[in-house]
Design brief:
alpha/beta; Rossmann fold; 2 domains; about 30% strand; globular
């Protein structure tokens, strides 16, 4: 991608700021434009500079990272929480943050996050609209005046990407301006199953099921603890 993705760091721990900045420096498509040591400073800086991405801690003096992101009212395209507290994951999910990283963040986990960010911004440039026309064996997506049919059997899985949903087929990926939860309600339950807060898969496309993940068309997808029962059909 030609355009660099700008980001701002917000964390009251200097070592955490330096760690994320060092890992981000490995990716030429990321460009840091500011670092902030608290959420109050972060609010002003984000409002002024309008970054693509915000990497923010949650527990900080003054106001929390959660309250900071709420105050920004969806103006940050891709907020990412980086925290030591897994118990706030549900808050992040409800705010539709792009990702939720637990400290200490490994380079592998950070790489996975930023590559998803890169793909998200690339696909977002050509995002499709979802048509609410109901059909049993395909869905319709729209781009401008053009309509495209996606056969249900061709869809391998869907992934939540903030207020978009990524639809993955063997030949192409589509980003649709429709929330993940809304898409979930429109898919036939006899064909699709939710395996994670961020993933819905085509049951008939699953190659294998392991303890905490599934394999589908040479890709590994995580299985969330709350959704393991949904895979009982494979036993």
């Amino acid at each position: 991608m030609g355009k660099q993705l700008t980001y701002i760091l917000v964390d009251d721990e200097e070592l955490a700021l330096l760690n994320i900045e060092a890992m981000a420096a490995e990716f030429s498509f990321l460009k840091k434009i500011a670092s902030c040591s608290n959420a109050i400073e972060g609010l002003e800086t984000i409002s002024n500079l309008k970054p693509d991405i915000v990497f923010a801690d949650i527990e900080m003096p003054g106001i929390s990272g959660i309250d900071m992101i709420k105050s920004l009212s969806g103006t940050v395209p891709a907020p990412v929480f980086i925290t030591s507290h897994p118990e706030f994951a549900l808050d992040g999910y409800e705010l539709q943050v792009f990702d939720y990283l637990l400290k200490p963040v490994s380079s592998e986990r950070f790489e996975k996050c930023v590559l998803r960010l890169k793909e998200f911004f690339q696909l977002r440039n050509d995002a499709f609209a979802f048509s609410h026309e109901q059909e049993s064996n395909f869905i319709i997506i729209k781009q401008g005046y053009d309509k495209y049919k996606l056969l249900m059997n061709e869809i391998m899985y869907l992934e939540a990407m903030k207020d978009y949903t990524k639809i993955v087929t063997p030949s192409k990926k589509y980003l649709v301006l429709e929330t993940f939860s809304s898409m979930h309600t429109r898919l036939p339950t006899e064909k699709f199953v939710r395996i994670h807060r961020s993933y819905i898969v085509n049951k008939h496309r699953i190659d294998s099921v392991q303890k905490n993940k599934i394999n589908i068309h040479s890709e590994e997808l995580p299985v969330g603890k709350l959704y393991k029962h949904a895979l009982d059909f494979t036993n």
